[in-house]
């Protein structure tokens, strides 16, 4: 696969060109179908950091550290943002079955 903007050769899984930064369209549908929600399975306190970590596809521990540092650096405003996010974010409707199969609770 080649970039349509600069012609650089790309891997099949690349979402962006490493030369010019243009999007390749790969996995665009998966990104658009994601939904920000409280992740109740991997939560420690309220599930906000776990929800953000799943949405941005990063490690939940990294998201907790980022949120904590941001909260302390802004003089506590981040903690208020955490509570607002908890109030506004919907609960996750997808849960994991004991056998490892994903079960959609909306059905």
Q: Report the mean per-residue pLDDT as an integer.
A: 77
Helix content percent band: 25-40%
Global morphology:
elongated
Q: Number of DSSP strands? A: 2
Number of helices in the DSSP assignment: 4
N/C terminus separation: 39 Å
At a glance:
The radius of gyration is 18 Å and the shape is elongated. Helices cover 38% and strands 6% of the residues.
Structure characterization notes:
The structure is a single chain. The chain has 107 residues and is mainly α. The protein has two domains: 1-33, no CATH class; 35-92, no CATH class. The chain contains four helices and two strands. Strand 1 (94-96) and strand 2 form a beta hairpin. The longest helix is centred in the middle third of the chain and has 14 residues, at 60-73. The N and C termini lie far apart (39 Å). The mean pLDDT is 77.
Which characteristics define this entry?
2 domains, mainly alpha, 4 helices, 107 residues, 38% helix, two-stranded antiparallel sheet, single chain
Give the SSE map:
Blueprint: H1 28-33, H2 48-56, H3 60-73, H4 77-88, E1 94-96, E2 102-104
Antiparallel strand pairs: 1-2
């Amino acid at each position: 696969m080649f970039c349509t903007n600069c012609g650089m050769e790309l891997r099949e899984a690349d979402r962006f060109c490493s030369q010019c930064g243009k999007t390749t369209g790969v996995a665009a549908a998966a990104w658009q179908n994601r939904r920000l929600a409280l992740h109740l399975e991997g939560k420690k306190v309220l599930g906000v950091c776990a929800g953000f970590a799943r949405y941005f596809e990063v490690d939940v521990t990294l998201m907790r550290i980022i949120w904590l540092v941001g909260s302390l650096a802004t003089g506590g405003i981040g903690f208020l943002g955490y509570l607002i996010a908890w109030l506004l974010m919907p609960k996750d409707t997808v849960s994991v079955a004991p056998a490892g199969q994903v079960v959609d609770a909306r059905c």
